[in-house]
Each structure stands twice: as C-alpha cells, then as structure tokens.
Amino acid sequence: xxxxxxxxxxxxxxxxxxxxxxxxxxxxxxxxxxxxxxxxxxxxxxxxxxxxxxxxxxxxxxxxxxxxxxxxxxxxxxxxxxxxxxxxxxxxxxxxxxxxxxxxxxxxxxxxxxxxxxxxxxxxxxxxxxxxxxxxxxxxxxxxxxxxxxxxxxxxxxxxxxxxxxxxxxxxxxxxxxxxxxxxxxxxxxxxxxxxxxxxxxxxxxxxxxxxxxxxxxxxxxxxxxxxxxxxxxxxxxxxxxxxxxxxxxxxxxxxxxxxxxxxxxxxxxxxxxxxxxxxxxxxxxxxxxxxxxxxxxxxxxxxxxxxxxxxxxxxxxxxxxxxxxxxxxxxxxxxxxxxxxxxxxxxxxxxxxxxxxxxxxxxxxxxxxxxxxxxxxxxxxxxxxxxxxxxxxxxxxxxxxxxxxxxxxxxxxxxxxxxxxxxxxxxxxxxxxxxxxxxxxxxxxxxxxxxxxxxxxxx
Length: 460
Ligand SMILES: Nc1ncnc2c1ncn2[C@@H]1O[C@H](COP(=O)(O)OP(=O)(O)OP(=O)(O)O)[C@@H](O)[C@H]1O
Known about the structure:
By secondary structure, the protein is of the alpha/beta class. Helix content is 54%, strand content 9%.
C-alpha cells in the first residue's frame, strides 16, 4: 500500500523526536503539519515565516537529513504559513504569499559560483543595519561597522576583527556591512563566507585532479570586501591558514576591506600562527559585548512586531530580565511563545513565559538573571521564594525582597521599572530599597557581610 504524505511526515517526526529533547520537539516540530507531497515537492504548514526561518537556523541539519532519508534526495521543501493580523479575530485572513525553498542541496559554494561567473555575495538580506537594534553595549561596534560600510577603503579599520560570545550579533553586523556596501555599489565584489566553508573549499581544491588551488587563491584575491565568519574555525588547519595568509596579504596590499569575526579575542586564538594573528591586529579589534537590558528589550519588541505577536509589557520585561546572554536565545523564546500562543491558542501571560523560560534558563545555567537572583537571595535568608513575590510586609521577608531588588540592579543591570514589574512593586519602592541598601553598606557591617556572601553566591 502506498504511503500517504501524512504517513511519511509522521515517519520524519519520529526520527526527529528520537534525536532532540522533548521540549525542543514540542516547541519546533509539533506545530508543523504536512500539507502535501507531490512531484518531489513537500509542503509544510508552519505558524509564521519567522518560525520557518528559526526552524532552519536551528534544525536545518536534522531536518534535511531526515527528509532526504524519507523522501529521497530530490525533495524540495516549501513552507505555508498564515500572516497573523493585529486582531486575533481576523487571524488567518491571508495565506502567506512567499514560499521559501528550505532544503538546499548542500551549502551554496561561492568558489564554484564564480567559475560560472555568477557571483553571489552569500549575504542574508535580513541582516541589515536597519534591523540591527542598538544600545550602549553595541554602540562602538555598530559605529565602526557603519564607518566601514560608508568607506570600504578606510585603512584604519582594515581588517576589522569583531569578536564576542555566541549569539550576540556578530554575523548580523558583519553581513550588514556587506549589504550596505552592495546597496551603495551593486557591482562591488563583496563576499561573505563562514571559515568552515573556506576550509572545505580549500580541501576540495587541493584534492581536485589537477589541483585547483591556484584557482581558489585567485578567486579570493579578486574579492573587494571579504567577510569571514568564525575565523576561529581555521585553528588546526595549517593548509587553509597558509592559503589565507596569501589571500590576506594580497587584499590588504590592494586596500581591499577584510572583515573577520571570531568567538574570542585574537590573543585567545592560541593555535593560530603568529604571522596571521599579528595581521588580525593591524586594523581595528572590537568586542561585541553580551546584550544589555535595553538591547534585549528592543530586540524582543522588534521580533514581536515582526511576527504580529502581542506580548504584554510585563511579559517583555520579564523575558528581557531573565534571558541575558544571547540574542539568539531571546529569539528562541519569542518563537516558543508564538508556537504556544498559536497552536494551543493560549494568551501570552507571565505564567506562560515562565514555563517557556524554565527550559531556556536551564540551558544557560551560568547566566545571571532576575529569577536566579531571587532564588539565591531566598536560599540565603532561608525564605520561601513565593514569599519574596508575595505582598507580605513581615520584616524578614521585606528585607529579603529589598535585597533581591538591590542585587537585580547590581548584577543583572536591570532598570528600576523592570525590577518593579518582576516583583509587582512601584518604581519608588524599588528605588528606595536600592538606595537604602547602598547607603547602609558602608556603615552596617552585618549587611555588608550579607551582601558579600550573596554576591559570591550569584557569581558562582
Ligand atoms: N542588535 C541586534 N538587533 C537585532 N537582532 C539581533 C541583534 N543582535 C543579534 N541579533 C539576532 O540574533 C540572532 C543571532 O545573531 P548572530 O547570528 O549574528 O550571532 P553571532 O554572534 O554571530 O553568533 P555565533 O557566534 O553563534 O555565530 C540573529 O538572528 C540576529 O539577527
């Protein structure tokens, strides 16, 4: 008996289910339904376009591998989704106009493209400066990037070496430079390439018979703005490092812009040869710091608006206060909320956000956020966590609550209003609590000792 498209999709789901956590499965695969499969074209219904993008970013490998296994290698995937209107009653008024083929036959290969003289910059059109939210923590990196985008022959910032932890926005920013340069000069040979792809192209060029290594180097030496992501992936790759050394020298001598991103500073790229490291430091080295509260809040608002998702202010405050280390995690939370809201038809409340965050926060054990601070303070004073959030005015409870406010300002750098939202207290109350602890620390040794101990609990 022939299998229906639903049977086939169910088979995919059971493979995927065995390979990811139940939380991931519930958030990302349960909301998907198979619409049809005909002439190698599989159509899946997903909640929104943003959901599809996030799904691809996170699960492209497992999704592609599973689809190839069940439907064969010719499968093409299209998404269907509805545009959510601003009024929930008018939901599902318009079928998504754009279907995006998802499973691409392997990575696009710019080096191959060039041979066919069809030059593709490999830039993701959504990574623009316009979509890049700003705050104090990324001000310098953003200004330098905009300066390069305006004057791509600028010697001072060549190369630009941008580093920072995972998910803080490096790829977005370096691609924004490329996009802006292309907007100003559509013919510019701008190329974005992840270091890992550079490495695999190099290996393929060396292995080809006859060798295509000269072609590889010539291609890269013809680029005007070369953007290499995750340069740390070239560690332990002496062959590619050597080829890149020649490419770098040629481009730099000819005043072509080189932009590099890395997950650590040049000094920490221990396995990279000195001759490359010293070149990385010739221009501008700049760190993209962990997102501060203001940035996290703006990205949340932006993502919610893009998805037509109404998230109440207190929920935005709550998420921004608790997901602190990466923008990618924040985006994940918005998508999970969206999945719950759409699929389970649930309103987005603090309770829902708390249960979505429970999983996300488990993953980022080390990050300091409001819930973690409240937990540490309540443990320190031996008070139930619920009491901290209660209306109780008992002395020991209100003291502990004041300490939570103070610590949230001190460690999570949360604004007074956001702390107030998390504890359902007024701005003036939080302001007074923080101020009074600050004033008493120098003169109250017992309090000072408590603060030091709680500081240590939070940091470790
Ligand atoms: N300032 C920002 N404004 C809007 N979106 C942002 C910002 N920073 C990051 N993002 C978004 O967060 C997601 C992760 O960012 P990105 O991939 O650039 O991080 P990354 O630092 O390169 O991470 P990795 O090192 O893991 O590759 C992307 O979807 C990006 O668009």
